[in-house]
Amino acid sequence: MWFAYRRSIVSLVRLLYLTGLVVFFYLGWIQGYEQTLYFNFGNYVVLFSYTVMLLLFMNVYGGLRVGSVRVTNLLLSSFFALLFTNFFIYFELSLIAREMLSVLPMLFTFGGQVMLAFMGCVAMNTVYYALNNARQVVAIYSGDADDARVIEKMSQFNRRFRVIEALDAAQPLDELISRIDPYDSVLLGRMDPDTRKAIFQYCYRSGKRINILPDPMEIALCVATKTQLFDTPILLCKNRELTPEQRLVKRISDIVISFLGIVALGPLMLLIALAIKMHDGGPVFYRQTRLTLGGRMFSIIKFRSMRTDSGAASPTDEGLATRNDPRITSIGALLRPYRLDEIPQLFNVLLGDMSIVGPRPEQPDFHALYMEELPEFALRLRVKAGLTGYAQIYGRYNTTPRDKLNMDLFYTEDFSILQDIRLLFMTLKILFVRESAEGFDDDAQQVDLNALIQETNHAAAGREKKDDVKVG
Q1: Kind of pairing, strands 386-388 and 355-357?
Q2: Which residues contact 259 (CB under 8 A, 6 or more apart)?
Q3: Given this model, what pLDDT does residue 39 score?
Q4: pLDDT of residue 438
Q5: What is the CATH number of the domain that holds 148?
Q6: Residue 156 needs a FRET pair 20 to 30 A away by CA distance; which of 147, 241, 267, 328 works?
Q7: Mean pLDDT of the region 273-300
Q8: Statement to judge: residues 122 and 271 lie in one domain
Q9: Inter-residue contact 184 to 159 (CB < 8 Å)
Q10: Is residue 277 part of a domain?
Q11: What is the distance, to the nearest Å, from the Cα of residue 317 to the centroid of all Cα atoms in its chain?
Q12: Are both 95 and 154 inside the same structural domain?
C-alpha cells in the first residue's frame, strides 16, 4: 500500500525537512535579532524571502535530490544552500536594523541548521531507499568502449540501479525485445539508428524507463524551440552563437570577476608561489598552448604541480594522471584537489583569452586526436574556453572526450547568463568534492561486461533449452 504513494511520501519528507530548516532560522532570528522584528506582517515578508532564497539555493546545489546522489553530496549541497541563504538574509536583517548586526546569532543558527541538515539528509535517503528498490536495468550497446564505462558506472550505484543484463545490439531485434520484457528500465547505448529507434518505440509504448546515451543531435533537440507551422508541430534548432548583448554582458562579468578575484586571492597566490619555489627551486608557473573560441591558440598559465624532472609540468602533458601519480609534487598534491593550481588563469580571463564560465580549454594535439574519431568535438569551440563550466563541474580529469563534448553541448546549446551564475555557485561546492579533481583510480572496481554478456546469453540459452524440453 505504502509503495503506491512513495512519491507523495518522499515529497512530504522533503517538505518537513525544509520546514524544519526555516523554523530553526525563525527561532534564531527572534532570539538573536529582536531589533529587526516587525509588529505586523513585516515578519512574514522576511520569513517568505528566507524561504524563497532557501528553495532557490537548494535548487541550484541539488540539496533535495534525494536518491539521486550520495548522502554526503546531499549534505554538502544543503550546507552551501544554507550558507548563501543565511549570508544574504543577514544583510537583509542589517538593512532592516540600519546597522551591521552581530554575526554570532546567525553563526549559531547556521551551526544548528547544519546539524539538522545532517539528520534530515540521512532520514530522507533512508525513507527513499526503503520505498524505492533498485531498478533492474537491461543495457543494450554495440561494444563501444565509452558505453561500457557508462554501464560500469551505473553498476556501481547499486542502490539505484541493478544492471541485470548487458545485451549485444547486433542480436536480432525480436530477441532483444523479448529479453527487455522482464525489466522496467533500459539503457540505450550507441548502435544502429534503426535498431535504437525500434527499441525506443517499444519501450516507450510499454511504459519502461529509458536511459539514453545521447549524441549531439539529440542534445540539440532537448533544447529546441517548440513552434508550429499552422497545424504542424515543429522543433526549431536555432544553432546560433551568443548574441552581441550576451557577449558584452559575459565580457564585462569576466573583467569584473577576474579583477576582484586577483585582488582577493593575491596574498594566497603569493604564498603558493613561495611554497613552490622553496620546495624544489623550480619555476613557479608553467605555460601551455590551449584552444579557445574559433580554434584560436593561447598560452594558459597555472601553478606548477609536477616535478621539473618528470618531463612534464602538468599531468596532462604526458597522458592522464592517476590518483597517486608519482610525478606530482607534494605541493601539487595539495593544490590540485582544490583547483588552486588554476588560480593564475584569472589573468587569462582578464586578458580575454578565456571566460570565467565555458568549456575546458583543450590542448591542440589532444583536440586533433579526438577529432579523428569524434568530428563533432569541434563544436566546443563555438564559445570561449572557461575557467569553470559544465564539464569542469560534473566531469573528472579522466572524463572521456565524448562525455566531455556532450556536457559542453548541454552548456552551449542552452546558454544563458542565469546558467552562468548557477555554474559559478556550483563551482564553490565542487572545490570540496575530491573525486572530480582526481585522475584515474588504479584500483577502481570494474564490471566485466564481456562476462556479463556471456553469462546472460548462456542463461537465455538455458531457458530456451528448458522450454524446448517442456514442449517435447
Answers
A1: parallel
A2: 350
A3: 78
A4: 43
A5: 3.40.50.2300
A6: 328
A7: 93
A8: no
A9: no
A10: yes
A11: 25
A12: no
